[in-house]
Amino acid sequence: MDEALLPHTDEERGGWKTFPFIIGAIMGVAMVAYGVSSNLEVYLIKGFNVGQIDATQINGIASGCISFAPVVGGVLADSFLGCSAVLAAAVVACFLGMLLFTLTAILPSLHPPPCAPPTPCQPPMTAHLTVLFTAIALLATGVAGTRYNGMTMGANQFSTDSDRTAFFNWCFVSLYLSSIAGTTILVYIQDSAGWHWGFALCTAITAIAFLFYLFGRPYYLHSKPNLSRNHLMSFCREGKLLIRFLPIISSGILLSATISVQTSLTVLQALAMDRSLTHNFFIPAGSMNVFVLATAATSITVLGCTRCRLSPLSGITIGHVINMFAMVAMALTESRRLAVVATNTFSVLWLVPPLVLIGFGEAFHFPASVAFYYQDFPASLRSTATGTFAVVSGTGFYMSSAIIAVIRRSTNWLQDDVNESRLDNVYLTLAGCCLLNFVYFLLCAWLYKKNTENREPKREEIY
């Protein structure tokens, strides 16, 4: 972020001493956000009596808001309030959001009564959904001010590029660890001990995250927002150069949308499968995405340790191909499940190989996309560059809801009973979309390279 550090005379401020406090706040909110968003679809179905496909669409919209939120937080920090104020307000907002989530699980007046077959389930009232959506909005606000803004605040504590690079690397590792902990520990507690205990624990974690922030305040180097008119004019002028990036950016949106649809449908599949590992232990449906996260984290680490260096566009290309084959694998797995569901149980572990494949693809296209935006955007728009992936991801979540709506309206493949659905056909459709999008991406990449070579001397790409 292009923020000027405020003058300071205390040499005890800044540096690695601030790391545990800033990263503690970031990790606390991230763990809670992943723990809630990973299981939100299940909470809508079981806690609010929402139909499965409606829950999938609502989850897509909510995930889109959470993904877009860091961009808004970055703008507020850059132009109005500064990183520290935005980070503090965000953690407080997340705490209030989790307090509301907890109340929706505890108070009977804030959720519909549980289903009691054969009586039809009572759908949620407008007041129920209003409180729930307010809680989601507050959670998104918490993510808005901590994810990228927290990284920027942390980087501002250092004076050398090597320290900043090390800080960013530890940030990404911490975020992956937080996401894995959220989608396993917190989701398991929600499913086994009860929603109220799971959300209450999330509330406590957020409170601890705020304490981390407060304890570090004496050591922070604070920054002030950039309100310069010249800075705004420069942003508008160089922003016009971003038009040539739009085709490649748009190809990333559909890639993100297919993964979003897959993530939501995987939860529905898991709910209908045998999730027991032992007599007393089962895998929560909302935790299935941990196989994607763990594979991506491991693969990124291994790829980073190898001497093979791919250009960003090459990495994105490989990610597109792997994701396409992953959708085919998901279709084959679902087809096999439907063939035996009437007579036998089907273990949820059959979903692991396709999910691992998706995670492996993410290890290529996720860091490669960030590297491409950061490397090729104008130098004065680097903060915009790092936030571009959030825009792509958020738009992909919104598009996933639209894709589900179109398939639901034009076919009978999506029913509230997943055993009466044809999710295998949905996955094959997604694979077809991935193929067309891959061809589109190759065309966009070719045109981009051609235009870049005509505009400026060829330079070495660094991945």
TrEMBL record:
Annotated keywords: Membrane, Transmembrane, Transmembrane helix
Gene Ontology CC annotations of this record: membrane
Record's keyword annotation contains Magnesium: no
Transmembrane segments: 18-37, 57-77, 84-107, 127-146, 167-189, 195-220, 241-261, 281-303, 310-332, 352-374, 386-407, 427-448
SUPFAM superfamilies: MFS general substrate transporter (SSF103473)
InterPro entries the record matches: MFS_trans_sf, POT_fam
Name this polypeptide is given: Putative nitrate excretion transporter 5
Species whose genome carries this gene: Dendrobium catenatum
Upper classification of the organism: Eukaryota, Viridiplantae, Streptophyta, Embryophyta, Tracheophyta
